[in-house]
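User: I'm writing a tutorial on reading structure tokens. Could you give me a worked example: one chain, its sequence, then its tokens, then a sentence or two explaining what the tokens reveal?
Assistant: Sure. Here is the example chain.
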Amino acid sequence: MKHVFIDGSAGTTGLRIRERLAERTDIELIALPEAFRKDENARREALSSADIAFLCLPDDAARDAVGMIQNPDTVVIDTSTAHRTAPDFAYGFPELSPEFEEKIKKSKRIAVPGCHASGFIALVYPLIKSGILPKTARLTCHSVTGYSGGGKKMIADYESEKRSPLLSAPRQYALTQEHKHLKEMKALTGLLEAPIFCPIVADFYSGMVVTVPLFAGDLAGGMADIKEIYRKSYNTAIVRYKESPDEAGFLSAAGLSGRDSMEISVLGNEERILLVARYDNLGKGASGAAVECLNLVMNCDKTAGLVL
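And here are its predicted structure tokens:
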């Protein structure tokens, strides 16, 4: 029996993690009374008494929480941006390679990938590793996400009866090209330059589709080679290659809403190729990935508690 504490359990990510763990018999959740949820001493005690602690906090608060832990055996699974490129944290995307998975299993410090970054890295990492895509590539990435990714305030804005009519249409953001996921998108893929990144939030609760367009002439291989790489790389229940996700000429970003899996596809044609990752921003893009990391740490079925 492992004792697990979710620091930030009232937020969107924390609530979904709690939901995924609710039926587990191999875990006992450490719960703080509402009055002590933000009490520093109570949190310090809970963090230090936990076998595994999820941090579902803003970046600075997550850094502070790590510093509070007095138990050297407590495993930290951080869902914030704070530690994703830190050398002493394992990056929580085990499907990238056996080495990534093994590091997660052995680490006391694990950083859960960012929602947008998850799709981009899943698409680009194996192509650079194989040599089809050079590290010098200058890429563009488009991502459409549900509004739950913006946290409680954005959810409240979208679900308010008095909301702005502008929220009824998709909205592009991160217009200064300084989105906080760019650092890990560059570092984890090995790209020499971060991509031009165009995220869009739209009027649906959860779901995500990330697209990376490529000119075939810039690659050391073609569409068939990319498909074969993805088939070999992604063949699990959690991340899998899907030959044709087309929905009568459309592709819905909400297609995997409520699930913890990810679909990888190659669309387009022999000249202009579209790499596509579809998943739930709260699933494989956040809480589902965090629970998968927990499962690896506990050396149990990777899919335990997940909705696939």
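What the tokens reveal: The radius of gyration is 19 Å. The chain is about 30% helix and 20% strand.
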